[in-house]
Amino acid sequence: MRAGSSDDPPSARALRRRLVDRFVAPGVHDPRVLMAMREVPRHLFAPEHDLERAYGDHPLWIGHDATISQPSLVGIMSDALALSGREHVLEIGTGSGYQAAVLSRLARHIDTVEVVPELARDAAATLRALGCTNVDVHTGDGWAGWPDLAPYDRVLVTAAPEVLPRALLDQLTDGGLLVVPVGSQARDQRLERWRKLGGALYKQDLGAVRFVPMVHAEPSPHP
Question: Which domains does the chain show, CATH number per domain?
Answer without folding.
Answer: 5-208 (3.40.50.150)
